[in-house]
Amino acid sequence: xxxxxxxxxxxxxxxxxxxxxxxxGHTWTVCRNGRxxxxxxxxxxxxxxxxxxxxxxxxxxxxxxxxxxxxxxRDIPVIMLTARGQFIDREQAxxxxxxxxxxxxxxxxxxxxxxxxxTTPAS
Length: 123
What we know:
By secondary structure, the protein is an alpha/beta fold. About 45% of the residues lie in helices and about 20% in strands. The protein has a single domain (about 5-120), classed as Response regulator (Rossmann fold, 3-Layer(aba) Sandwich), CATH 3.40.50.
């Protein structure tokens, strides 16, 4: 199963994510803001990052840009999971290097399918 970093500041959303991921055997580290997510990605091995956009200290888009500058983590796929669903938000996330952009409320099945696709080595 996948090793994940979850960057989410809302406790309720974090609990929903954890319930979904636990059922499928994934492991994760929780970060409460973008700055923590960047530090965590630098220090821990991860297969995928799930990142909220609106967070304190450093937002998810800024954190994504920082991650893409770091050679040893730039290829870790990032799933942006956010309440901001405007076209401009999606465009900004994709142009910054997000692999997937999902809006809240999200489909757990869709999230799990993206994690599977992004973390399974190509054969």
